[in-house]
Design a protein that fits this description.
The protein is an alpha+beta fold and about 230 residues long. It has two domains: about 5-65, no CATH class; about 100-230. Helices cover about 20% and strands about 30% of the residues. The protein has four helices and eleven strands. A hairpin with a 5-residue loop joins strand 1 (about 100) and strand 2. Helix 1 (about 15-30) packs parallel to helix 3 (about 50-65). It is rod-shaped and about 100 Å long.
Length: about 230
């Protein structure tokens, strides 16, 4: 409609105009936008809404860069750090994993509510998408790792929520024996799962060094006890 209102023909393409906009803005800032060499740019901006919008955007960015836009706040807010003074005395100490060795040399690891809180996994866990579908990987609730208890034995316990039943979970006990060189030489370690003194299940690790206990009630987690027979 703008072009129809004039008899002059627009001889410039949008690409040509937009390529010249940075130089035109500099000329405009120097008061030279009225010069003949910029007539085609000015006419194109008057008749092309797309390029005029691009011009307006670049102009705003230039003004911001030069500090000509925006209002300096009268004062910057001071963060309230008073909560830091509420924690008096010693800083919180890291929670250690409760473990002991029996007379037979078995490694016993005990869960508790405090341990679960200390070693819980982050609430946010990224979901990976493949072909538009979200990953079906279970949600990890907790993971602890114990390396210093028994020589040549590293135990990692992972608790994952069962997707079919959030009230239950899968507990995987991985027993790594570095001297064996890893998979597939990690089979044969006996792992017993208890709830307090009640024995729930006993398994031996597979070639990956894993013993998997499924269908464990989530409410039972703070009361779980793991007994591992270390390799000798």
């Amino acid at each position: 409609m703008r072009a129809l209102a004039t008899d002059e023909e627009d001889l410039m393409t949008c690409q040509e105009c937009q390529d010249l906009l940075p130089e035109y803005l500099q000329a405009e800032g120097a008061g030279r936008a009225h010069e003949a060499q910029w007539h085609l740019v000015v006419f194109h901006l008057e008749t092309c809404p797309h390029c005029s919008a691009e011009y307006a955007t670049l102009s705003e960015l230039l003004e911001l860069a030069h500090g000509e836009q925006g209002v300096e706040p009268p004062r910057y807010p001071v963060p309230d750090l008073s909560f830091l003074g509420r924690a008096k005395g010693r800083p919180p100490q890291p929670v250690s994993i409760p473990w002991r060795l029996t007379e037979l040399g078995h490694l016993v690891i005990e869960f508790s509510a405090e341990v679960l809180r200390a070693f819980q996994m982050p609430a946010y866990q990224p979901a990976y998408a493949v072909a538009g579908l979200k990953s079906k990987s279970p949600k990890a609730l907790c993971q602890i790792s114990l390396k210093e208890a028994v020589e040549d034995t590293e135990v990692t316990i992972t608790v994952e929520e069962m997707r079919a039943d959030p009230a239950r979970c899968t507990v995987t006990v991985r027993v790594d024996i570095p001297s064996r060189g890893g998979w597939p030489n990690l089979a044969g370690t006996e792992v017993t799962l208890k709830r307090g003194e009640l024995e729930l299940n006993t398994q031996t690790t597979d070639a990956h060094g894993e013993a998997v206990f499924e269908g464990i009630a989530t409410d039972d987690l703070p009361h779980l006890v793991f007994e591992v027979v270390p390799h000798h």
